[in-house]
Amino acid sequence: MLGNEIQRGRLPSSIMFYGPDGCGKFLTAMELARVLNCSRGIIGSNFGEEVRVSHEGACRNTGQPPQDDSIPNHPNTCTCISCVNISKLISRNLFLICRSNLRNSFDLWRQFGVNHENLQWFQRDLRRLLLTIYDEPRYVKDCNELEGFLHTSSEIPAHSQKIIRCVFGILDSLKGMNISIEKIRQIQRFLWVKGSDGGFKVVIIDGAENMNEESSNSFLKISEDTPPDSLIILCTANRDAIRETILSRFRMYRFFALSGDARNEVLKERFGETGKRTEDQRFSEAEAFAQRLEDESIRLLDFLEIVKEILDCDQVISFLDFTIHSSMEKFTLAGNLSMEDVYRIEALIKTAASVRNAILYGNANIEIVFTSFMLNNYRSSIR
Prior knowledge:
By secondary structure, the chain is of the alpha/beta class. The chain has helices at residues 2-7, 25-37, 81-87, 103-112, 119-133, 140-151, 160-174, 181-192, 213-224, 244-247, 260-271, 273-293, 300-312, 316-330, 339-361, 366-378; strands at residues 14-18, 94-98, 201-206, 230-236, 251-254. α9 (213-224) links the parallel β3 and β4. The chain starts with a helix and ends in a 5-residue tail after the last helix.
């Protein structure tokens, strides 16, 4: 566990968190940065029973949602100035490159809304987006608009839908955006310039799979010569897209998708009972589509009509999420499954996750990719 490695002084200078979206990689990276810089030396529950991570191949989901201790006013939070600044992404000891797709997060904000209870989570997502675009000349106007929203925080709940529309306009233009070599060079300057307040320098690259060849070469040199009292954390949903020479220098921690119950608890904590109820409804609708598709008497034209209905209702990501989660739950019955069934379920999970990533992060044609996935994985039911 990370908590034990911190206490024993055995934390390496380069680590990687990898796993599907929404499993707590970024929150754990933020909590690690907080702990290393906490003036009171408080290790929160992110390194206790709620989140358990271990070395490659040994991670197990406890079924409990990760507690977001880095958010101010959370019951388990530390209120020292260092912890507060890190939670707000304004600490001088934290350097964040964000290239992960934030669409899922803002989809939830659009769906459930922003209020004064969850405002600080929303502000942090806005800052993550701002850090993604602030040094891109074409986004100067957007940066000014986002900063304006952040400076008038009390008015955010009333104008949240307007803000979210602005955010989605930015996100639509960010698809396929790589991490530039200039951003990597900024890491080197950050690590080797000693801050006035001392502290532990932490670099978090969220969406590390988006480094291109040029930036990968530059990053490789930096990772080989990390100064004392510093840490580089890579977060990725696609480890295979990162060069082997980089992977070999990082200790890896694998994260698994949250169970349905754990996901509901996270939504309930963030958005209240409405969040839990709406998420249950989303999976219920996806399950209804799946049951119709698995009807043994279904004909090809009817099958394609249901696929079109999923596309028209904007339920593609929900359906893929349901496919992944329901398949993961089947592994709890692994003792009753043949090896052939285990391999088939594993292949389905990987394919669904790949299609999901292609739709969210790539420039894939959603209709073609999703229809192909459905025909290849549900075709046994078609007459």
